[in-house]
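Handoff note, outgoing to incoming analyst
You'll be picking up this chain. Sequence as last confirmed:
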Amino acid sequence: MDANTQSMDETGSFTVAAWNRIAPVMAEIEVLPLLTRLSDGTLPPEVFRHYILQDALYLKHYARCLAIVAAKAPDNAQVLRFLGSAQKAITVEQGLHAGFLTQFGISSEDVTSAEPSSACFAYTNFLLATAYHSSYAVALSSILPCFWIYWHVGEAIKNRPAVEGNAFQAWINTYGDPQFAAGAREVIALTDIAARGASPTERIEMMDVFVRASQYEWMFWDSAWRLETWPV
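Most recent structure output, in case you need it:
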């Protein structure tokens, strides 16, 4: 089976093939200490503060990536559909951040002065470079894992028995919410539409950036768990 064949499943769906490709990455994500301990409410507050600060920095750049990808969409219908789903995700995350920043005593000055970890820096620069320099289809594939993996993780945690008094319940509720799921599904659908019109070379590139962004998702959570700072 050549690389182009591997970029589509037997039904012709790029996203199904892409999700199957990252199965080993997802297996590692699902057992990350940050997520398992967020789920049961035992995550140390300092780890969550570190994660939320890094996520706030990430979202600032991610929003710009979404705008670039929307600007590259091939027709007005896709521009509007994409902007709508992107807006849903950003609005939901910004509301979540605002609540947690207050709850965990993080000031606006803390956010302003925060520096990205090496994982956050690498991930956001990868997304920005891909958005700027790649086709719409490839750029769209690079931003899809953030939508899809958070939806998947949120659903999985939501379906576990609730822990009374879990300080992180709002996070669980946000990513397990039907509104977030709807936004993720829209981006998945748009990616499949883009893949059907993409060249064989583009589809290979789409798969490559999808896998790389998924790996960065693991790195981002793992680095927050380790309270990662720059080594020198």
